[in-house]
């Protein structure tokens, strides 16, 4: 096709860059099939990333206020160097002895309370949650897992069945129990206040139906549920109920971990909870496929000897080198402190928008994890439409965010950790413009 | 501790290199827990790999005749270059558009029969098998999966339940059926001849208990079962039985794929089977954490729109760059041809050992996948002990192999694909010495 035949300016520019988004979408549908869905009505064809910036095929620069995977910044040179150096030296598995995996495990466990004594390595957060459930069911002797009503915990069969956000509540097997997420905003925060009570009721209901509780599985930021940071005492009480019933407390830190919440490395610490198992993923390797399960040693003592677990790529020397580099960058660049201070500054800017736009009903945050709930005088469908429109408008205006929550009316903002004050200002100004257009 | 206080020469050398194997084992047990098990009574502390060679902390060189993950050779420079270059440029996920994932999907699907139209990317073979089962159950409406009696298909909850080699037959849920692996040696190959009949009986048994068949899931090399290459017509007949019953045929090519069997890229082709789903893992990225599901488009049409699937790291640009590099290396270095010709030469050398050592009962192979079955006049325990001893003796003599099979009496030999004739000779000579010591 001749470029001059293209009726759209965008297609023209894209043709210059090699491939139009439309052609890419068609090729995706043909080669990858219908499960591959792109962000934005006008999907972005990315070619480069650096720090908090992403660049498309036309050289347009986007401020990334969404990607928590490239957590220490896109293509961080120190991480890339560790990856490249180790990949050129040795990349085998954990059936051979190696120092680096032990150095990494030691460093990673060193960021946690001492009761989490063992680190086990996987390649994804899904695999980490899948393994955590396996360990919890094995060690508790129970089968039932308690989750929140719009939780997401992974894409394996077992974790998808514990992800109503992905598969719907009906696909959650009968032995599990769904409790209302601790929504701190809606209905004046009733579900958040009642959270421990609801967990206790779920346990009672399990007992009534002869289901033995295995675990309470919670994302410390309630990412899919709409991003909530409920009261610590209530969360501790919920954890206590589960422990008393013989269940295991699993903190899913795949989204909230590695300093994002700005108070320390882990979200569970904000609640004063001592989880029995902690699962890690997404930001753990700044994009490298890694996951981990940190666990109380006694929970895997008999699991280890009877069942065993081996993950071919999990904890290989390259993953360990990358993992160490990520921890070192978080430390040397003061990224937790940055998440705390610039996070607070960003929240302040977002809250001024609440004053200026009636649509902004609530601004919630911890560090660099923000939920901005939009409403439309009680019209839920309209609120969701507006939320989508704001996300799309911001994309067109050069800032990447997304939305979440069961009603799709919460802006989900979670930038890479090196996000600076001027980035925060650009985010807030762009959001201000997007909201003003309604 | 002063070096001169060490009573063992090995410990001395290790102390020079920084850490003794014993200290590493203790540190592993403390940090990683009991699921981490090392190969060999005298575990190897590796520090470097290159081509078919692995080097320990004392600079000792081992010929790798076991690792199928580093399939195009340890730390292949072209793969490392692709990895490093892409990791420094862009490493996001498939919610954005990118050319490289499509180039990779096209290249990968191009190695398969045309009916496998879509590629879906995961991070491990376990995730690939887990997703394949999910798609098979969804698209067939069935639940029951047929596997062989010492199969291994992964480490997620769902795939471990289909891995009697890992969890035992008792842990396989009631809706699944276990059939005897098509053992071409034992009992004069009866299980291999009867394989299709056994699969048909398993389907009948499902029907009798109101279980709807979902899939036949087979490793094309029967790697854990003992490494078998049964008659193609019987395998096709087994596949036909499953299809007629409404089930899906899944070829698990995690071990047998990417040219290892020497006839082409995929093991299923040797049987003339047209699988509905093919799962890939281990060698796909020469050590980089990757997996894939290749599937008939109609099987994911409604799965895609109703359930969806997203894998955070799966198919990211770095994985795609690595995957392309691996395919290019296989092609440019003629590695499939090498697996075929040097594989045949290696088999010839191994067969001469059969003549020289009564203990060697059977030598099976396709390309670079060898099963050498050892017996001890019908004493199974002794055969297993001898098999272990041979593996250990070879490790001490500088060649790495392992064992498999339900009775632990099959030497498992599957070198990286650049394995050369002189490597084959070293392998055979070392094995000759190990066998002679019995």
* Spatial ordering of strands, largest sheet of chain A: 4-10-9-8-7-5-6
Number of strands of chain A: 15
CATH class of the largest domain in chain A: Alpha Beta
Q: Say which CATH homologous superfamily of the largest domain in chain A is assigned.
A: Type I PLP-dependent aspartate aminotransferase-like (Major domain)
**Count of helical regions of chain A:** 16
**What integer value in Å does the Rg of chain A equal?**
22 Å
Strand-pairing-aware structural class of chain A:
alpha/beta
Alpha carbon gap, first and last residue of chain A: 39 Å
Rounded average pLDDT of chain A:
95
Architecture per CATH nomenclature, i.e. the level-2 architecture of the largest domain in chain A: 3-Layer(aba) Sandwich
Question: How many domains would you count in the coordinates of chain A?
Answer: 2
- Strand-residue proportion of chain A: 15-25%
User: Biggest interface and which pair forms it?
Assistant: A-B, 99 and 99 residues
Contiguous runs where pLDDT drops below 50 for at least 5 residues of chain A? 1-16
The helix fraction of chain A, in percent, is 40-55%
Q: What is the fold-level CATH name, i.e. the topology of the largest domain in chain A?
A: Aspartate Aminotransferase, domain 2
Could you give a short account of the major beta sheet of chain A? 7 strands, mixed
Describe the oligomeric state of these chains in a short phrase.
Answer: homodimer
What characteristic shape of chain A results from the CA principal axes? globular
């Amino acid at each position: 096709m001749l470029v001059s035949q293209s009726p759209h300016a965008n297609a023209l520019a894209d043709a210059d860059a090699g491939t139009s988004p439309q052609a890419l979408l068609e090729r995706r549908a043909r080669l990858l099939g219908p499960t591959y869905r792109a962000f934005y009505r006008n999907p972005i064809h990315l070619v480069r990333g650096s720090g908090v910036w992403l660049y498309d095929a036309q050289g347009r620069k986007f401020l990334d206020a969404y990607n928590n995977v490239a957590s220490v910044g896109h293509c961080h040179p120190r991480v890339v160097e560790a990856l490249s150096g180790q990949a050129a030296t040795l990349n085998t598995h954990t059936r051979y002895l190696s120092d680096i995996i032990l150095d990494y495990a030691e460093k990673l466990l060193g960021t946690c309370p001492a009761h989490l004594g063992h680190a086990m390595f996987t390649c994804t957060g899904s695999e980490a949650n899948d393994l955590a459930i396996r360990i919890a069911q094995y060690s508790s002797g129970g089968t039932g897992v308690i989750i929140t009503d719009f939780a997401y915990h992974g894409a394996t069969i077992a974790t998808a069945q514990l992800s109503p956000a992905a598969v719907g509540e009906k696909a959650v097997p009968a032995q599990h129990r769904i409790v209302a997420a601790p929504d701190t905003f809606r209905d004046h925060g009733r579900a958040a206040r009642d959270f421990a009570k609801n967990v206790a009721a779920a346990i009672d209901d399990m007992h009534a139906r002869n289901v033995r509780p295995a675990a309470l599985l919670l994302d410390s930021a309630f990412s899919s549920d709409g991003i909530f940071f409920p009261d610590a005492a209530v969360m501790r009480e919920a954890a206590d109920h589960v422990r008393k019933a013989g269940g295991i407390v699993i903190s899913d830190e795949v989204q909230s971990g590695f300093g994002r919440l700005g108070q320390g490395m882990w979200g569970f610490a904000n609640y004063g909870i001592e989880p029995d198992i902690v699962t890690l993923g997404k930001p753990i390797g700044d994009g490298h496929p890694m996951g981990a399960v940190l666990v109380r040693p006694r929970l895997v003592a008999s699991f280890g000897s009877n069942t065993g677990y081996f993950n071919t790529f999990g904890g290989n020397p390259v993953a360990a080198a990358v993992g160490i580099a990520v921890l070192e960058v978080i430390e040397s660049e003061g990224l937790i402190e940055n998440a705390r201070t610039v996070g607070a500054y960003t929240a302040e800017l977002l809250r001024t928008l609440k004053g200026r736009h009636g649509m902004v009903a609530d601004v919630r945050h911890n560090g660099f994890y923000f939920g901005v709930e939009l409403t439309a005088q009680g019209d839920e469908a309209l609120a969701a439409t507006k939320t989508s429109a704001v996300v799309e408008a911001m994309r067109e205006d050069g800032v990447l965010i997304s939305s979440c929550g069961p009603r799709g009316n919460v802006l989900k903002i979670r930038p890479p950790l090196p996000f600076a004050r001027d980035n925060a200002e650009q985010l807030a100004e762009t959001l201000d413009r997007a909201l003003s257009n309604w």
